[in-house]
User: Fold this.
Amino acid sequence: MSWKRGIWFRTTGIVPYNRITNLDIRQGPVMRALGISTLAIQTAGYSGQVASEIKIEGVTSAEELREFIRSMIRQMPQPGDGTGGEKNLPATTDQKILDELTKIRILLEEQKKQGR
Assistant:
């Protein structure tokens, strides 16, 4: 998701869908009378801030927009466990890793026997 802010001084940014943590709809009494809302989007690493990272103001169909963004988030691959690997590796990849580890273990055991 990309965004732009400002008239005189422009700020732009890109927020990956998989970093979005909160999607809040805000609507005061005047906004309710006008039929508009503000969609506030917070991301991981920005949650501790008072203000949202992205605000989309004057939205007439905030619920639909929020659901659209949620659907985009669900389509994104989920982050791994921080090791750089994928969470659900295919069985063939698991087998290749196991085979390689077995070969390494055999080599280490042979080296250990030769060292005695």
In short: The radius of gyration is 25 Å.
